[in-house]
């Protein structure tokens, strides 16, 4: 009976979290075509590769944690390895944020591109921080089964996804406007 109530509560929370009055994430504005020298395009591509390499660090840990967490949220048993998986995902997200903060936007780029790239980078850093905070909440939920922790996890995870999507869209829009292949 206790598990049935927990599952019902989790289902209600999941349904309610999809019905918020928060506005949808702001889509990246259409950026007019940007003309860059071949050297500046190379610098832009190198910056994009640096960002992608940092993202790849955290991506695997986040996906693994996500798979394990789906089982827990659906009422499944907490696996012995879940705390370690959550700790690893959190550490990878924090590391990704730190690494992104160290990445320098190429100075030679036009100011408007540098501003947009900085916005995208800042959004990615904030997304990884929110992912890490969501793992704190789900770790509490896994140990205490407090539904408020699950609600906090969902809130932080949704925030992280929104930030990540918005930041990625900005970077992609810049790359498209500059005529650089994705």
From TrEMBL:
Designated name of the protein:
Lipoprotein
Q: Which PROSITE patterns match?
A: PROKAR_LIPOPROTEIN
